């Protein structure tokens, strides 16, 4: 029986240093949920960075011991590797380039060297633990070289790879000095999965143009094997969002959390008051300044909505060591200040801005209470927030405004779709969302709910694993010929 080895930059658990030593907290993130059944049931192991740098051998042992209880194995990264591999090549080279921010992309040899080194370190950790014929599932843009390193050293392994961010057009990839190595790194896999058909198509075109391999529909033909390319749009834990939203809705007002009561009070303090919600990591790909400008334009065009609608903007701190993120934070602070200064009154803040993360329960309360979700990324691999908002709308009253640049827009066709760079159109979309008749809302939400309930996070993981196992059968047929 082959085992599953999962590799991702971060482990599905967090290790923290406290006064009493190291502590471990499981993460409730989507990936961890989707892979839980495979990870726990089949004696599999998850390899990744535990988020902590042990200072002594004793601490290192302590971390290894804690992780063992969760079937996790650490790859320890030091300060220099975090700077060059994580902040550097991953987040200052690949992240901007793959999201079409060519002007932010840094080309730096030391970043590249560290990136290659960390990918080798992941390979060492996997190989040390892999038995003959094991299956490895590698995740995301931090580990693009890993499939091929593994292939060369351990041809017996079955290797799957899933990219969580967009794969951009060849015109972007071609500017990267290490473009051949990156594409070739991925081709070590037996199966490469993307969120959307467009990303898969871009990848295939880069393979053809950079490496000249033959492609037959979704199979890349290498000298002695084939690589399958396929589309697996990542879903959410639908049941979890739906059941929490139902529970919250059934609670009498006095039993609700303080934060939820605050939202209720805000909405009831004036007849027909509305709430627009946006949630994202503070990232330049998420189109936050454009969104604020669209909201400002909406308030200019529709003065009758002043005091009647607020935008709750939850912005989660992210990659705070990278310069562009610091600049963006300052830009957002100023924009929010300007809008509130220009339109705000003693009773009303147009933008209610949080720069922090909130506990899961508060997240669901926000989803349930918001009349409109305004999600306007300039580029986004998928955007799970859009799906979570829809799943939480158990009363079917809500409108989603979604950027056409988010992978999720391919599955959520009933949303109001906007080009986030078109500020006047986004402002109009806000007006249309706020005036949408109940019947139309219900129809749109129901259709989207049915779709994302069917293809949830569990289905996503099982479809990927099914396709990966199929490559094993294909390989044995190929060898038998
Ligand atoms: C990458 C790709 C792709 C957010 N704030 C809080 C909180 N969250 C949770 C949301 C959601 C997740 O974080 C964010 O997921 P997204 O998909 O929206 O975005 P990225 O973080 O950029 O993820 C993206 C994804 O990978 C999966 O492949 O969709 O395109 O960029 O689940 O609920 N959770 C809590 N408090 C918060 O304040 N508890």
Automatic annotation (TrEMBL):
<comment type="pathway">
    <text>Glycan biosynthesis; trehalose biosynthesis.</text>
</comment>
<dbReference type="GO" id="GO:0004805">
    <property type="term" value="F:trehalose-phosphatase activity"/>
</dbReference>
<comment type="subunit">
    <text>Homotetramer.</text>
</comment>
<keyword id="KW-0808">Transferase</keyword>
<dbReference type="GO" id="GO:0003825">
    <property type="term" value="F:alpha,alpha-trehalose-phosphate synthase (UDP-forming) activity"/>
</dbReference>
<keyword id="KW-0328">Glycosyltransferase</keyword>
<comment type="similarity">
    <text>In the C-terminal section; belongs to the trehalose phosphatase family.</text>
</comment>
<comment type="similarity">
    <text>Belongs to the glycosyltransferase 20 family.</text>
</comment>
<dbReference type="GO" id="GO:0005992">
    <property type="term" value="P:trehalose biosynthetic process"/>
</dbReference>
<protein>
    <recommendedName>
        <fullName>Alpha,alpha-trehalose-phosphate synthase</fullName>
        <ecNumber>2.4.1.15</ecNumber>
    </recommendedName>
</protein>
<dbReference type="GO" id="GO:0005829">
    <property type="term" value="C:cytosol"/>
</dbReference>
């Amino acid at each position: 029986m082959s085992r599953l080895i999962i590799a991702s930059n971060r482990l599905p658990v967090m290790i923290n240093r406290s006064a009493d030593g190291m502590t471990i907290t499981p993460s409730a993130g989507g990936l961890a949920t989707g892979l839980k059944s495979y990870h726990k049931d089949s004696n599999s192991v998850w390899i990744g960075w535990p988020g902590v740098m042990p200072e002594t051998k004793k601490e290192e042992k302590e971390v290894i011991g804690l992780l063992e209880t969760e079937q996790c194995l650490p790859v320890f990264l030091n300060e220099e590797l975090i700077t060059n591999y994580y902040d550097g090549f991953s987040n200052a080279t690949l992240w901007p380039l793959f999201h079409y921010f060519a002007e932010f992309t840094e080309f730096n040899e030391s970043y590249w060297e560290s990136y290659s080194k960390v990918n080798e370190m992941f390979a060492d950790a996997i190989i040390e633990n892999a038995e003959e014929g094991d299956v490895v599932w590698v995740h995301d843009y931090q580990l693009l070289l890993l499939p091929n390193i593994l292939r060369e050293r351990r041809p017996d392994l079955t290797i799957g790879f899933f990219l969580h961010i967009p794969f951009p057009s060849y015109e972007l990839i071609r500017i990267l000095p290490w473009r051949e190595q990156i594409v070739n790194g991925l081709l070590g896999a037996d199966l490469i999965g993307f969120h959307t058909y467009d990303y898969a198509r871009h990848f295939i075109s880069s393979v053809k143009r950079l490496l000249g391999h033959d492609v037959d529909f979704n199979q890349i033909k290498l000298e002695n094997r084939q690589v399958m390319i396929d589309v697996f749009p990542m879903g959410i834990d639908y049941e979890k969002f739906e059941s929490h939203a139902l529970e919250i809705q059934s609670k009498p007002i006095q039993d609700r959390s303080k934060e939820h009561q605050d939202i209720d009070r805000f909405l009831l303090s004036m007849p027909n008051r509305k709430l627009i919600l946006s949630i994202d990591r503070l990232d330049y790909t998420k189109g936050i300044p454009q969104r604020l400008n669209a909201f400002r334009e909406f308030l200019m065009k529709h003065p009758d909505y002043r005091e009647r609608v607020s935008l709750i903007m939850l912005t989660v701190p992210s990659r705070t060591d990278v310069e562009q993120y610091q600049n963006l934070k300052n830009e957002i602070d100023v924009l929010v200040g300007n809008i509130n200064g220009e339109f705000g009154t003693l009773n009303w803040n147009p933008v209610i801005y949080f720069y922090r993360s909130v506990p899961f329960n508060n997240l669901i309360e926000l989803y349930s209470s918001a009349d409109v979700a305004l999600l306007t990324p300039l580029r986004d691999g998928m955007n799970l927030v859009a799906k979570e908002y829809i799943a939480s709308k158990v009363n079917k009253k809500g409108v989603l405004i979604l950027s056409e640049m988010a992978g999720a827009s391919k599955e959520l066709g009933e949303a109001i779709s906007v080009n986030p760079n078109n500020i006047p159109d986004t402002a109009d979309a806000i007006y249309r969302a706020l005036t949408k008749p109940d019947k139309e809302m219900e129809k749109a939400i129901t259709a989207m709910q049915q779709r994302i309930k069917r293809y949830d996070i569990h289905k996503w993981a099982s479809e990927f694993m099914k396709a990966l196992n199929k490559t094993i059968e294909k390989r044995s047929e190929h060898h038998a010929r």
